[in-house]
């Protein structure tokens, strides 16, 4: 009788171990499949969100580069000869509409600031004048 109780206890512990292993295995399998397949589990949501963030960041960079090109193309091709900020912005917005690029004021100012940082243009805030540098003309022509 004692031997039967030992086997029964062993069998119960074995079932608990197998059930626990099955739960762990299925959880890991779901987690792995969430990262590698189109199964929309928690893991895949994390991966998809990261991909969307990278795409948005890439789109913003691409848009800023296009706006920089619009700015440089709307400026005179002579170093030191400037254009009014408002006129430049209107020219970039109208060219952007033709090219299907949305030129918002914040994006325009950010692109202009990056061009100033890259020393492609000089922006005189007191007179609202933007002038290209020779470096900027060479880089964007």
Notable features of this structure?
mainly alpha; Arc Repressor Mutant, subunit A; 72% helix; 7% strand
What does this structure look like?
The protein is mainly alpha-helical. It has a domain at 63-140: Winged helix-like DNA-binding domain superfamily/Winged helix DNA-binding domain (Arc Repressor Mutant, subunit A, Orthogonal Bundle), CATH 1.10.10. Helices cover 72% and strands 7% of the residues. The chain is built from 5 helices and 3 strands, in the order ααβααββα. Strands 1-3-2 form a 3-stranded antiparallel β-sheet. A hairpin with a 4-residue loop joins strand 2 and strand 3.
Radius of gyration: 31 Å
Average predicted confidence as pLDDT? 78
* Superfamily (CATH H level) name of the domain at 63-140: Winged helix-like DNA-binding domain superfamily/Winged helix DNA-binding domain
| Class of secondary structure makeup | mainly alpha
What's the number of extended β-strand segments? 3
CATH architect. name of the domain at 63-140: Orthogonal Bundle
Task: Give a short account of the largest sheet.
Answer: 3 strands, antiparallel
End-to-end Cα distance, whole Å, is 96 Å
